[in-house]
Amino acid sequence: MYGGHAVISIGHSHPNYVDKISNQLTQIGFYSNSIRNPLQQELADKLGALSGCNDYQLFLCNSGAEANENALKLASFITGKKKIISYKKGFHGRTSAAVSITDNPKIIAPVNESDNAIILPFNDIRATEEALKNGNVAAVIVEGIQGIGGIHVPDAGFLVELKKLTEKYVAALILDEIQSGYGRSGKFFAFQHTPVNPDIITMAKGMGNGFPVGGVLIQKEIGAWHGMLGTTFGGNHLACAASIAVLDVMKNEKLIENASKIGNYIMQELAAMDGDFEVRGLGLMIGIEFTFPIKEIRNRLLFDYGIFTGVSGQNIIRLLPPLSLTVQEANEFLAAFSEVYVDVAQSLD
Ligand SMILES: Cc1ncc(COP(=O)(O)O)c(C=O)c1O
Predict the structure, then answer these.
(1) What is the pLDDT of residue 348?
(2) Beta carbon of 143 within 6 Å of any ligand 1 atom
(3) What is the pTM assigned to this prediction?
(4) Residue 123 — φ and ψ, nearest 5°?
(5) Contact 98/65 with Cβ under 8 angstroms?
(6) Exposure check for the chain: N or C terminus, fewer CB within 10 A?
(7) Which residue minimizes the CA distance to atom 16 of ligand 1?
(8) pLDDT (tens digit per residue) in 268-291
(9) Contact 196/140 with Cβ under 8 angstroms?
């Protein structure tokens, strides 16, 4: 029920995915961006059509951190400003600028520490406006749904207010959809549960179903000039083939609708168990927070039932299964979870 950190979107070794990458390899696996690669256009077109984000430009790279690094750099280039606002419990990657705005001092090396990072309480609009008023803010970055921090969906209205504020103070609004995007929340991007159109959207994980690929969607009006961003491997033929296969399968097998349907079902069933835990999330991005450490529950699920779950901190189970999860598989998990939870909760009494 973990899909390899939310990376496995269409399921392991899907035949169309295997065929597409294998065939591509027999033609050409890589050539640099000094030639035009038609697969990049096909990927951009299919991504625009399935996500509804048609009026964005696409920059391709190789990982989530790299996508955020480029998004932050772009925001700084276009605004001429330096500071970045991010939020408590947020995670944006382990590279230089991305880690400096990640709320985890343990993974920030001295070389990554930056006076440009402003990390504010999540959902705090007033604090955000105060920081923006002080000026020099290039961007506000926020996850569509906080993942590593424990599956926290932004409050209703938070993103709408952020959009208004970033417009007022001329900063870019960056939606980090690296974990919450690509259909996981039951919409293509989690922010699409709101009416907001971000200036920049970052994505990775589910995009390649395990093939390392990331991307940055950039609103058309943002005048990114040729050469502003660059990469050797980004947008290579194999990565494009993998990403196109993912989009084709997601569309043909209606996996976004499935994520919404099965995710809602799991959350309803968990809520109906009436246990001493809180259920949060959207689609197949689900957090279950307990009042006690979950090590025993996770171990029992794994060793007695062969079900692997994710974690956040000591007390939160994170469910991030492939978007192709069936109702039978969901029921298998729910039955196992119910038995294990009752046992473990009783042993604590
Ligand atoms: C929301 C978010 N942003 C960025 C990243 C970094 O992605 P990557 O590990 O591909 O660099 C992650 C990874 O977990 C993430 O969850």
Answers:
(1) 87
(2) yes
(3) 0.98
(4) 70, 10
(5) yes
(6) C
(7) 179
(8) 999 999 899 999 999 999 999 999
(9) no
- pLDDT, residue 224, reads 85
Q: 348 C-alpha to center of ligand 1: Å?
A: 35
Q: How far apart are CA 210 and CA 110, in angstroms?
A: 31
- In the Cβ-directed half-sphere of 109, how many Cα atoms lie within 13 Å? 5
Q: Assign domain 255-348 to its CATH superfamily.
A: Aspartate Aminotransferase, domain 1 (3.90.1150.10)
Q: How many residues in the chain?
A: 349
Per 3-state DSSP, the chain is made up of helix, strand and coil in percentages (nearest 5) of 45, 15, 40
Q: What are phi and psi of 284, to 5 degrees?
A: -100, 45
Give SS3 for 287. Answer: strand
**pLDDT given at position 274:** 80
Using a 6 Å cutoff on CB, does residue 208 contact ligand 1? no
Which residue has the least CA distance to atom 9 on ligand 1?
Answer: 64
Nearest CA to ligand 1 atom 7: 64
333 CB near ligand 1 (under 6 Å): no
Pocket flag, ligand 1, residue 44 (CB < 6 Å): no
Query: Two tokens at 177?
Result: 């959809």
Residues 141-179 pLDDT 10s: 999 999 999 999 999 899 999 999 999 999 999 999 999
The minimum-distance atom of ligand 1 relative to the CA of 90 is: 1
CATH of 13-252, one of 3.90.960.10, 3.40.640.10, 3.30.420.10, 3.40.190.10: 3.40.640.10
Pair of tokens at residue 69: 């690094």
**What is d(CA 281, CA 207) in angstroms, rounded to the nearest whole number?**
20
- Ligand 1 centre to CA of 339 (Å) is 33
Residue at token pair 């640099």: 32
Q: What is the DSSP string of 191-257?
A: GGGSS---SEEEE-GGGTTTS--EEEEEETTS-PPTTSS--SSTT-HHHHHHHHHHHHHHHHTTHHH
Ligand 1: distance of its center to the CA of 147 in Å?
A: 9
- Both structure tokens of 162: 């952020």
Burial class (CB in 10 A: 0-12, 13-18, 19+), 167: exposed
C-alpha to C-alpha distance for 220 and 51, rounded to whole angstroms? 15
